[in-house]
Amino acid sequence: MICMYTNASYTAVFDVLNTYTDISLPLTLLQPKSVGEITLASADPRDFPSINPKYFSDSDDLETLYKAVEIVRNLENTTAFQRLRIEPIILDIPDCDADYEKLSKDWWICSIQYVTTAGLHGVGTTRMGNNSETSVVSSELKVHGISNLRVVDAGVFPYPISGHTSTPVMMVGEKAAELIKNEYA
């Protein structure tokens, strides 16, 4: 997901949770619509690229996560939660608390942006296609304009998958092995 907090704000928001015995119901946006970009910062290959993930640039992503919050909030009214006396821990988020009524939709939208963290498995960073102007690698996983270099990872996936990337990446690896074997056979 998205990381928009600093170490200090992370500590201020989440340290309170260490004082509770709790359950955690993390929300995951499996199919975000927002699209970021990676560009070269300079012609020097040793320079880090410029990365702009453009989190929540598509408002549907925020709405989807807000709907997930509503579902979790409705769990509070279930017999199971009531029997176990499970009560929500509503964090103080100063930037949102100052601007919005606590627990209002606007407050939740602000909070979602403030405390969401990035997932670990990015995809689509090396688009596949035949046109070198709009893609990085060919359907043979070869980097356009560079000989003897292929991309064999989740970067070639056009969209996020709704699960762990390990198995699909292994499949890309198997395909790459087959392509290389056939090319040099």
From TrEMBL:
Membrane-crossing residue ranges in chain numbering: none
InterPro entries (UniProt xref): FAD/NAD-bd_sf (IPR036188), GMC_OxRdtase (IPR012132), GMC_OxRtase_C (IPR007867)
One term of GO molecular function: oxidoreductase activity, acting on CH-OH group of donors
Signal peptide: none
Family: Belongs to the GMC oxidoreductase family.
Record protein name field: Uncharacterized protein
